[in-house]
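Structural prep section.
Before we set up the soaks we want a predicted structure of the protein with calcium ion in place, mainly to decide which crystallisation condition to try first. Input record follows.
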Amino acid sequence: IVASFADQLLGGKRVVVSAGPTYEDIDPVRFIGNRSSGRMGFAVAGAAARAGAEVTLVAGPVSLATPFGVAKRIDVRSAAQMHAAVTEAAQGADIYIGSAAVGDYRPNSVAEHKLKKHDGVDLTLQLAENPDILASLSARQPHPFLVGFAAETQNVEKYARDKLHRKGLDMIAANQVGQGLGFETEDNAITLYWTDGSLELPRADKAALARQLIECIASRYQVMRG
Ligand code: CTP
Ligand code: CA
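Run finished without errors. Recording the tokens verbatim:
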């Protein structure tokens, strides 16, 4: 097999990708989760590996096979576990792509035993804020080239650019969820934003989008760090 130029876009680079949802346990049988399937992040990890990168994939609870070529997979459940795994994996990494849908809050405490129902009484769960993985990476120097994702239901560009700056990212991949796109779907459509530019990637299957995303990351990385 002859490697094409595209196969080596990220040759020799260490890339960390997070993917999937996180689950925040309430008690031994219940949790707070979200609708992320992990498919976009897994496609991105596979595309990075095909581009020649040494890829570490940090995966929340998903039922997906590890993409061909991915060097290492670390399975986690909660945002705290993902934070710890990503922080360690990102040491010395060149690029971090945060495609995971990290839970923003977790129950203040995890009940040791299954909570019992009390008829006719509302239940209030107290939630504590989770650490922001991307923001904590960008606060360290040196840190990898940072790519975030933003799944929004409205004001996509405004919210995405706001996250780009607030979290200190190099690039953000934004998409509108709903209308048969985004979570729990085969297709996606994303727009990439960086400080002084953007690139629209029209509706396509997640593997094709992942390939284009990796091409754009490689070229921005080259501009910023190369
Ligand atoms: N993210 C993260 N750590 C968190 C929450 C989010 O690293 N605790 C990352 C996600 O992996 C994603 C990006 O931040 O790459 C944007 O996630 P999003 O949920 O859209 O941003 P939030 O800042 O949590 O804003 P909100 O949920 O209020 O829209
Ligand atoms: Ca969030």
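Observations: The mean pLDDT is 94.
Flagged for discussion at group meeting.
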